[in-house]
Amino acid sequence: MSMPRILLAEDDDSLRGFLTRALERAGYQVTACADGDEAAAALDQPWDLLLTDIVMPGLDGIEVARRAAACQPDLRIMFITGFAAVALAASDQAPSGAKVLSKPIHLREIVAEVERMMAA
Predict the structure, then answer these.
(1) pLDDT, tens only, 67-109
(2) Residue 79: in which H helix or E strand, if any?
(3) Cα–Cα distance between 65 and 82 in angstroms, integer?
(4) How, if at all, do strands 76-81 and 49-53 pair?
(5) Measured between alpha carbons, how far is 3 from 28 in angstroms, rounded to an integer?
(6) How buried is residue 108: exposed, middle or buried, by Cβ count under 10 Å (0-12/13-18/19+)?
(7) Which of 66, 62, 68, 82 is nearest to 31 (CA)?
(8) Which residues pair with 6 in a beta bridge?
(9) Which residues lie closer than 8 Å to 13 by C-beta, 6 or more apart?
C-alpha cells in the first residue's frame, strides 16, 4: 500500500516545517506549499488530503479547497486558521465535509485529526 499523500498549504514557515515533519513521522507523504498559488499549482496530482491555512498570500485556502474539490471530488479537506470569524465563514463557503481547526492547536491534535479523517 502506498503512503497517503497530503498537500499542505501554510504560509507560516515554522508551522509548515513542524507540520510536515509531524505528518511524515505519522506515515504520510507530505508536499508543503508556502502559499495558495503554489498549492493550486500542485492540484494536477492526486492527493488524499488537503490541509490548508485559510488566510494566505495569493489564493486563500477556501479558493484552493474549491479548486481541489472540483478536480478531486472525494478529496478530504481540512482547514487550519487562527481567526475564529474566518473559521465560521469557512464552514459556509468550504466544500462540504471539510473540517475547520482553530489555532492555537497542538501538532499532535492536528495529526490525530488527520488520522481520524483518513480512517473515515
Answers:
(1) 999 999 999 999 998 876 666 666 677 788 889 888 888 889 9
(2) strand 76-81
(3) 17
(4) parallel
(5) 6
(6) exposed
(7) 68
(8) 30, 49
(9) 34
Whether 28 shows a pLDDT value over 90: the answer reads yes
pLDDT > 80? residue 18: yes
The ranges assigned to domains in the chain are 5-119
Compute the Cα dihedral for 115, 30, 103, 68 and give only its sign: negative
Show the CA angle centred on residue 108, arms to residues 51 and 34, nearest 5°: 35
Q: Tell which residue, 72, 16, 28, 22, has the closest CA to residue 46.
A: 72
The architecture that CATH gives domain 5-119 is 3-Layer(aba) Sandwich (3.40)
Q: Which one is predicted more confidently, 2 or 66?
A: 66
pLDDT given for residue 50 in this prediction: 98
